[in-house]
């Protein structure tokens, strides 16, 4: 199921800009929204509707060295933290018609809403755009049928050409926005390996490319900015403890920006973002057509982005 997450510091570039480096400029991507059995839709071809709720707490903003960022307030410079409440509604159609190399075509559409809260709220460095509509995500994909073994499926996978469209609320006067104001291309390969009928390993590997922002945050005093390229991966392993009902496991994600961000076409040193997270998760099959995912993540090693705790709840319904 293709869904894209939201990075913890939506566009808090103003904090790092004030220290001479462009950072916190990657768009929202899938960090922890997808996990177990990710290599294929859980109920076969057809129409799916999914609802995601994610709660991000105590996201301490970090600089290029991984140290806390501090913002000016009436009480002096204080550590900056960000909380987020995220909602994604996804519509996905998986056909039963092979299109290319045996892969069956499909398409998904995701509508995001985001609400954020800054601590301290009376700092002088940041302001937030009141709009909460994020960038719409759309992606055509090819899903291959599972490769079967003597005791059931052995491997299933999918390739999607994900695109992030600059449709979210954005204002160049505010460093924190729900929308990124850029087009991004974020294709991925998702797969699930059945080690045995009850034990699975899944991953979703993304590449991220971002177009130029020709109306960047005015604090940059620049004509245009461009976030660097990045790779990011969601990974998980789960064991079926109750047949056809409950899977328990471990899930995580990792993001690495692999090229520097740019201002007016010039690369900016120490602008790369990085974060790693891991935690427990569960998948409960309410019925053959209804599935409930829960995932928890604790981040570490963050550079040029926030580091906090992320809780994800996902409900998937298959119309049959």
UniProtKB/TrEMBL annotation:
InterPro entries from the UniProt entry: FApF
Highest taxon above the source species: Bacteria
Protein name: Protein involved in MetA-pathway of phenol degradation-like protein
Organism: Marichromatium purpuratum 984
